[in-house]
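ok, trying the design again with the full structure, not the truncated one.
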């Protein structure tokens, strides 16, 4: 194997060789990775523009005037927002009605309970009709956020709490609670008159406005 003489390998390239070597070296992918991308260049241009905009010197008089104009603009925007959307409303909501109603689990809405009570009344099942209509009365006030009926609440405790929100219906509420007690716990027969008594107070309270608008525990 022959030895290559030193003269065959130029240690000091001429201009063309140096340019060619530099182009070959810079064509390596490792150099392309370090080059700034188009996004980098665009972001840099935006930052330079913003910095130049706020870094410009402003005279004291102009600075004071710009501050006053900015404050007035903020106040005008706040006033316009109030005129368009009004005051921010409270996000407070009435608590969700409890599933239990006077000892029994029942997740139906007030309207569903009223329809079920009417169905029993059509079949002459007055005891069930009375019980369901009174539960509709309680569920309706719970849905309106007026009277809360937690587990363990009695019908008479509910009647007293509801009377605090609807004073004109105090006697009717107590009479309806007694009708519920008679057919539910004392096992007395239900009648069309008892059902009409409970239904009438339910209808009256559903159409009335309470004196107390926040949830009252039964």
């Amino acid at each position: 194997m022959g030895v290559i003489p030193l003269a065959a390998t130029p240690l000091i390239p001429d201009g063309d060789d140096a340019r060619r070597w530099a182009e070959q070296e810079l064509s390596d992918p490792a150099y392309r990775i370090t080059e700034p991308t188009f996004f980098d260049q665009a972001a840099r241009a935006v930052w330079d523009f913003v910095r130049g905009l706020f870094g410009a010197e402003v005279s004291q008089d102009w600075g004071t005037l710009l501050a006053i104009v900015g404050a007035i603009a903020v106040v005008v925007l706040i006033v316009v927002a109030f005129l368009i959307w009004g005051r921010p409303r409270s996000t407070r909501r009435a608590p969700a009605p409890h599933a239990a109603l006077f000892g029994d689990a029942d997740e139906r809405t007030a309207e569903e309970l009223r329809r079920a009570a009417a169905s029993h009344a059509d079949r002459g099942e007055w005891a069930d009709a009375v019980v369901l209509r009174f539960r509709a009365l309680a569920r309706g006030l719970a849905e309106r956020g007026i009277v809360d009926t937690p587990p363990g609440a009695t019908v008479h405790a509910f009647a007293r709490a509801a009377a605090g929100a609807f004073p004109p219906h105090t006697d009717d509420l107590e009479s309806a609670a007694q009708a519920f007690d008679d057919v539910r716990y004392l096992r007395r027969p239900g009648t069309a008159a008892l059902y009409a008594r409970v239904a009438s107070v339910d209808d009256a309270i559903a159409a009335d406005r309470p004196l107390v608008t926040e949830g009252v525990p039964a």
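Keeping the full-length input from now on. Residues 121 and 133 are 10 Å apart (CA to CA).
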